[in-house]
Amino acid sequence: MVVVGILHFIYPGGFEKIVPDSLPDHLALVYISGFLEVLGGIGLLIPNLSRFAAWLLVVLYIAVFPANLYQAVNNIEVAALPHDPPLIWLRLPFQAFLVAWAWWFTKENIEV
After folding, report:
1. I need a surface site. Which of 39, 82, 90, 109 has the fewest CB within 10 A?
2. What sections of the chain are H helices per DSSP?
3. pTM for this entry
4. Cα 81 to Cα 93: distance, rounded to the nearest angstrom
5. Burial code of 49-60, b = ≥16 C-beta within 10 A, e = fewer?
6. Average predicted confidence (pLDDT) for the chain
7. CA 42, CA 54: separation in Å to the nearest integer?
């Protein structure tokens, strides 16, 4: 999560291209989502924050799904990610796995 979040700051233009046209201020959304990914990834490692971080990631994964769908439908290449249309489409169901994974960390007795 931390690495992918950092990539939002290194290659913002690539991520900006996959933000659906219907959403405002693409660059700000890229930076916000990157920051939240870094924050969530680090938060999972801090026992007192891990449940909050997990909930943050659940919401974030759901919130960025439209961008991933937009990328797949429009076959958009992102500099920071491998460009292979079948892989882009396979990433969509993988998002459900990520939501489930993050949700699992919201349980009380889970430690990283």
Report:
1. 109
2. 2-10, 12-17, 26-44, 50-74, 85-104
3. 0.83
4. 17
5. ebbebbbbbbeb
6. 89
7. 10
76 phi/psi in degrees, rounded to 5: -90, 130
Q: In degrees rounded to 5, what are phi and psi of residue 23? A: -95, 145
CA–CA distance, 88 with 34 (Å, rounded to integer): 19
Give the CA distances from residue 4 to residues 24, 31, 39, 40, in Å, rounded to whole numbers and listed in that order. Answer: 22, 12, 11, 11
Model pLDDT for residues 16-51, shown as the tens digit of each residue: 999 999 999 999 999 999 999 999 999 999 989 999
Beta carbons within 8 Å of 8's beta carbon, 6+ residues apart: 15, 30, 31, 33, 34, 35, 37
Structure tokens given for 43? 């938060």
Contact 54, 41 (CB under 8 A): no
